[in-house]
């Protein structure tokens, strides 16, 4: 076999290894919730509702005791590889402040249905399905959305296409899915030469161009966004928050939290007071 054939064979093997790496790296852990709002002393309902493709989502609908506020539930969205349990600290504080909540497991996470793979696009579809579910129960939009990491990025994208979803609060959201993956090491090092091919493979599998999904290209369509980001975030670099703010055309505000990373921002003493003030202000403006 000539050297050209050997070169072609080697490149084919290298490309195949890149696709295999992409397939494996894409897999997210599916861990069921171990705790629920009842363990916080809260009154809640376990709910199931439909999403795209005939799949079902598992969630918790929690109302504050004796709630007479007439507030619509806040939709809470976890991050990659997590589940609704991740939102329990948020459920507790929001409930104490009189906000009903709907937290759910995104597709291919927690107890919700499998669906081949997870993606930001599917997270966004599930957020819109949550709004559909709340409306089916007689709840009145708009519904505020609070999302973590990919859940926050998906909330921006979903809200840019659905006026029922506002305002939006994000924690550690990324500006562009491609750049978020690169920051985590995907498409770098050994696979850098074929990164464009691998990203096109991802787009084919997701069913949308990453540029079209990018929150920084859609955030200006969302009326009000509070961007919260840890200044020491090593998962989603703080530059993503600055890019989102720049793309919002004045419709977003940014709180960069010193000495905090990707998953501990909610431990900052000022975190929940700022979030509650933002939600209350926007709810009052909408009424």
UniProtKB/TrEMBL annotation:
<feature type="transmembrane region" description="Helical">
    <location>
        <begin position="180"/>
        <end position="202"/>
    </location>
</feature>
<feature type="domain" description="Serine aminopeptidase S33">
    <location>
        <begin position="72"/>
        <end position="187"/>
    </location>
</feature>
<keyword id="KW-0812">Transmembrane</keyword>
<dbReference type="InterPro" id="IPR050261">
    <property type="entry name" value="FrsA_esterase"/>
</dbReference>
<dbReference type="Pfam" id="PF12146">
    <property type="entry name" value="Hydrolase_4"/>
</dbReference>
<keyword id="KW-0378">Hydrolase</keyword>
<dbReference type="InterPro" id="IPR029058">
    <property type="entry name" value="AB_hydrolase_fold"/>
</dbReference>
<protein>
    <recommendedName>
        <fullName>Serine aminopeptidase S33 domain-containing protein</fullName>
    </recommendedName>
</protein>
<keyword id="KW-0472">Membrane</keyword>
<feature type="transmembrane region" description="Helical">
    <location>
        <begin position="143"/>
        <end position="160"/>
    </location>
</feature>
<feature type="transmembrane region" description="Helical">
    <location>
        <begin position="6"/>
        <end position="26"/>
    </location>
</feature>
<dbReference type="InterPro" id="IPR022742">
    <property type="entry name" value="Hydrolase_4"/>
</dbReference>
<keyword id="KW-1133">Transmembrane helix</keyword>
<dbReference type="GO" id="GO:0052689">
    <property type="term" value="F:carboxylic ester hydrolase activity"/>
</dbReference>
């Amino acid at each position: 076999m000539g050297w050209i054939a050997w070169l072609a064979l080697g490149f084919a093997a290298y490309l195949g290894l890149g696709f295999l790496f992409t397939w494996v790296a894409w897999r997210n852990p599916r861990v069921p919730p171990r705790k629920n709002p009842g363990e916080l002393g809260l009154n809640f309902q376990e709910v199931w509702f439909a999403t795209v493709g005939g799949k079902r989502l598992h969630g918790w609908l929690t109302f504050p005791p004796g709630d007479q506020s007439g507030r619509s539930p806040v939709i809470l969205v976890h991050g990659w590889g997590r589940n609704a349990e991740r939102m329990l600290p948020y459920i507790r504080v929001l409930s104490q402040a009189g906000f009903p909540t709907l937290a759910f497991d995104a597709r291919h996470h927690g107890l919700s249905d499998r669906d081949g793979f997870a993606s930001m696009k599917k997270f966004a579809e599930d957020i819109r399905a949550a709004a559909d579910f709340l409306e089916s129960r007689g709840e009145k939009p708009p519904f505020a959305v609070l999302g973590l990491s990919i859940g926050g990025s998906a909330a921006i994208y979903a809200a840019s296409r659905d006026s029922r979803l506002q305002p939006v609060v994000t924690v550690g959201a990324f500006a562009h899915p491609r750049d978020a993956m690169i920051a985590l090491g995907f498409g770098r090092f050994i696979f850098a030469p074929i990164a464009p091919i691998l990203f096109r493979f991802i787009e084919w599998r997701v069913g949308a161009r990453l540029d079209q999904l990018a929150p920084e290209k859609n955030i200006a369509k969302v009326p009000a966004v509070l961007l919260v980001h840890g200044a020491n975030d090593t998962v989603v670099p703080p530059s993503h928050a600055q890019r989102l703010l720049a793309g919002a055309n004045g419709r977003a505000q940014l709180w960069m939290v010193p000495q905090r990373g990707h998953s501990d921002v909610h431990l900052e003493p000022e975190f929940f007071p700022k979030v509650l003030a933002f939600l209350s202000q926007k709810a009052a403006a909408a009424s």
